UniProtKB/TrEMBL annotation:
Residues 1-26 form the signal peptide. This is Fatty acid cis/trans isomerase. It comes from Photobacterium rosenbergii. Keywords: Isomerase, Signal. GO terms for molecular function: isomerase activity.
Length: 792
């Protein structure tokens, strides 16, 4: 290219940029001339007023079931969180929360935490989706992004195609989002006429659209969540009194409880319609309005001499992907007293909030007995593990390719670990158990990775030496080591499913015997929580996120090696080789060295040529009293009526399994009248040579070994596909899906039984699905997320 041509090209690009930016400026000036300059409006109507009731009873349900299903949590497109009145008024941002390549940590934009008013969000760069100029019907429908998006969809509904054109529609997780401001809407409408809202889904009904347009035209007045009842507030007062005792012992215990429950939704289990709360730190004592302490992490310096732990009502719609219900009641309060207040231990001073101390719970809380801490965590083990499954770290394939697609989790019996020698051992290893979060949100990955790799190696060598001494001759190395839930607690075992870029954890041993399993002890459970929940910053830089992911490799392998220690020594080596086929030399050396230095023989007596399967069977038998059957498809009415189709679905493997999406929700309508529809989930478990590769997962895939797990009910927050069929069609459907060998075969199956994102019946099916799920599990259920529905 000649110098003159390069000059002309640069001039043309510069002119183009000026043109489009000029269009935006002109549009802004034009709106200003027509409707005045923008400023945030007062949109919250008085409680119990007709306007508020209209919003809550008529408008909000439409927004929840048509908008919130895509616009909630950190991964809401354009950060537009429509799950609360305040979130709708906040509007949208072009900045992404999940940005894995940023060199410096981003500013936090957490709803209800990092700003308390719409004006403050405007200062942080959020753009309105509601009209903020003169409040006239014309302005409200022409100068508001939400109104324009709805009108665009009505004017340009989805094309009449079963599968949308992949060149025109992008449904990938990290798709390029336009996030137009009102000044950019005319250009957006011209360039993307079919991209009205809901994006890539059928338009809402004329009636629903009219309700929303009338509401917008009248100023989009809303109401915030109702205040808790007097009965609920009295229970809140009781708990806040407990959590804010003045003794150092009480303060330390409350700090520990808070740092483990800050992501949970607390509720009182004796209420028929519970109100959910978040446990927060406040500068003000109970009885006064909450003055929120907003820090990146729950253990960051609060900047005040006294912290108060308060119950803040959840003001957002409950969505499944972030919902972690945690029941409170009289028995739980008694339990907390038993664990933290009644034991005789001295607290001489409160631990520092400096990251070197606060990021390491084994140092910060060493004054609390290990037994108390461990029992607190496993009492509600599902909730503890759910923190890293449903917390902010869970989003994205890079974050989750650190775990297998299906594995079981067991826990070391706390009675076996409740000895002074165990406490002393943890104290000697405090320096080796430091976590990446001590480096806060800006981290250099390579240097830190080397450092943490060495310290984890030192810890495992010390741990193996300690265990070699504790389990001489394998006399105590039996299934007695495994917690049985004390005979009543169904948190004693868990099943984790990974769905490529999301995951699910549930109680019990769900599905067929998996490839791998973890046995978790106190230090491992505590480090997982502080690595992936308390210490993880979703706004952190690339290094912080990468080191967190890489460190989790260590913790996974530690949990796996704990499980392997119950097997014969030669089987341990065989299983490791099987689990880590084709791993790099560094990892192989680590597995053969640091992990495998425990050489005591197992005390478990095996009688077959398949010790791992035999061990799983022993553990299933040991835990059978506390194994829930909630997800057991054989307990469904269809199975009880003799249907073999469910068994056929559960046996899909290889090519048939690999063609399925990660999560398929199935609704089976009864043949007989006056019977309820049944829901099932078909989960694809993707097989891998190993899961030690950061960026090239596909090269480790073994699709010929893929299989599925069929469960009763809905399991997972992000459905990829829906089936809707009659019970009388189930046998035929199971036969057809078991013979698919190509993508075209799968499409033909969906033609007959699928509910695609383009289906005219999509929204009615969605409403029925969510209603059945909510009626079955009113406390645990939340709205599903539709951002990952496939276009096939």
């Amino acid at each position: 290219m000649t110098k003159n041509n390069r000059y002309l090209k640069r001039s043309w690009l510069f002119a183009l940029i000026l043109f489009f930016s000029g269009c935006a400026v002109y549009a802004g000036l034009n709106f200003d001339q027509q409707f005045g300059k923008p400023q945030p409006q007062e949109r919250l109507a008085a409680a119990n007023s007709p306007i508020a009731n209209h919003y809550l009873d008529t408008v909000k349900p439409i927004i929840e079931n048509r908008c919130v299903v895509c616009h909630a949590c950190y991964d809401a497109p354009c950060q537009l969180k429509m799950s609360s009145a305040e979130g709708i008024d906040r509007g949208a941002s072009k900045d992404k929360v999940y940005e894995g390549t940023r060199l410096l940590a981003a500013n936090t934009t957490r709803m209800f935490i990092d700003a308390q008013s719409t004006a403050e969000w405007r200062e942080k760069g959020f753009n309105p989706v509601l009209n903020e100029r003169i409040q006239s019907e014309e302005a409200n429908t022409q100068a508001g992004v939400m109104a324009r998006m709805l009108q665009l969809k009505q004017a340009h509904p989805l094309p009449e195609q079963k599968v949308l054109n992949h060149e025109e529609w992008d449904f990938s997780l990290d798709r390029n989002q336009q996030c137009p401001t009102i000044e950019e809407m005319a250009k957006y409408e011209q360039n993307y006429p079919e991209w009205g809202m809901p994006y890539g889904l059928p338009q809402i009904s004329d009636k629903e659209n009219q309700v929303l347009m009338d509401w917008l035209a009248n100023g989009a007045l809303m109401a915030t969540a109702p205040q808790p009842s007097a009965s609920t507030l009295s229970k809140v007062a009781e708990w806040e009194t407990f959590l804010n005792g003045s003794s150092l012992k009480q303060q330390l215990a409350s700090r520990y409880i808070y740092e483990h429950l800050f992501v949970s939704h607390l509720y009182f289990s004796d209420e028929q319609q519970p109100t959910f709360f978040k446990l927060v730190r406040s500068r003000t004592a109970p009885g006064e309005p909450i003055d929120l302490i907003a820090t990146r992490r729950p253990y960051d310096d609060p900047g005040t001499t006294r912290v108060y732990y308060r119950f803040q009502p959840v003001r957002e719609t409950i969505v499944d992907k972030t919902h972690m219900p945690y029941a409170l009641n009289k028995a739980k309060l008694t339990r907390f007293n038993t664990l933290f207040i009644e034991p005789e231990y001295m607290v001489t001073s409160m631990p520092s909030y400096h990251p070197d101390i606060a990021a390491n719970p084994l140092i910060a809380f060493k004054q609390i007995p290990v037994d108390s801490r461990y029992r607190f965590m496993i009492d509600n083990a599902q909730n503890t593990i759910m923190g890293f499954i449903k917390g902010p770290v869970c989003r994205g394939q890079l974050a989750l390719n650190v775990i297998n697609d299906h594995f079981w989790v067991f826990f070391v019996d706390p009675a076996m670990a409740n000895t002074p020698s165990v406490d002393d051992f943890y104290e000697t290893q405090a320096d080796n158990l430091r976590l990446p979060a001590e480096n806060e949100s800006n981290t250099l990955p390579v240097a830190n990775w080397i450092s943490y790799s060495k310290q984890q190696g030192r810890f495992l060598k010390a741990k193996n030496a300690f265990l070699n001494d504790a389990f001489k001759n394998g006399e105590h190395l039996t299934t007695d080591l495994i917690w049985d839930g004390d005979g009543y607690n169904d948190n004693a075992s868990l099943t984790v499913f990974r769905h490529f870029d999301s995951a699910t954890v549930t109680k019990g041993l769900v599905g067929s015997q998996p490839k791998t399993a973890w046995v978790i002890d106190y230090s491992l459970l505590e480090r997982i929580h502080y690595l992936l929940v308390a210490g993880f910053d979703v706004y952190g830089n690339f290094g912080h996120q990468l080191v967190t992911r890489m460190y989790m490799d260590f913790l996974r392998m530690e949990g796996e090696s704990n499980f392997l220690s119950l097997l014969p020594a030669d089987v341990r080596r065989e299983q490791l080789a099987y689990w880590y086929q084709g791993s790099n030399k560094h990892l192989s050396d680590y597995l053969q060295g640091d992990i495998n230095q425990f050489d005591q023989p197992t005390g478990v007596k095996f009688h077959t040529q398949h010790p791992k399967n035999e061990l799983f069977g022993m553990l299933q038998e040991k835990l059978k009293v506390v194994l829930p059957d909630r997800y057991d498809f054989t307990q469904s009415q269809l199975a009880k009526n003799g249907s073999l189709a469910l068994y056929k679905l559960n046996r899909l493997s290889g090519k048939q399994a690999s063609l399925l999406p990660e999560i398929t929700f199935i609704m089976v309508e009864p043949t007989e009248p006056n019977q309820d529809a049944e829901l099932f989930t078909l989960i694809r478990n993707s097989a891998h040579k190993n899961i030690s590769s950061l960026f090239n997962e596909e090269s480790n895939r073994l699709p010929a070994q893929d299989n599925v797990t069929l469960v009763r009910g809905l399991l997972g927050s992000y459905p990829r596909a829906f089936w809707h069929l009659k019970a009388s069609d189930l046998d035929t459907a199971a036969k057809q899906i078991s013979t698919i060998t190509t993508e075209e075969d799968y499409r033909l199956f969906l033609d007959k039984y699928g509910v695609r994102r383009t289906s005219p019946d999509f929204w009615s099916f969605s409403d029925m699905l969510n209603e059945i799920n909510h009626n079955m599990f009113p406390v645990e259920s939340g709205l599903l997320d539709y951002n990952r529905i496939e276009n096939r």
